[in-house]
Amino acid sequence: MMMYPYLKLGPRDGVLLISVFIMLVLTLIFKWSVWEFLLSVVAVIIAFLAGSMKSNKKNVLTFLKK
């Protein structure tokens, strides 16, 4: 039974939340500044979004065949 069905979180969102939680724990353990925490979270989110992008079906090296 879902408690908040309007959120519609999937397993990929869970992985993202776990990675942000790990960054928070690392921030507390190694006493990072707020900026270091924010930059690491932004880097994780950018990597997450880049990993979910669809690859381009075109052959990138077609100009070499001409």
TrEMBL record:
The domain of life for this entry's organism is Bacteria
Q: Which UniProt keywords apply?
A: Membrane, Transmembrane, Transmembrane helix
Q: Transmembrane stretches, by residue range?
A: 12-31, 37-56
Name the record gives this protein = DUF2273 domain-containing protein
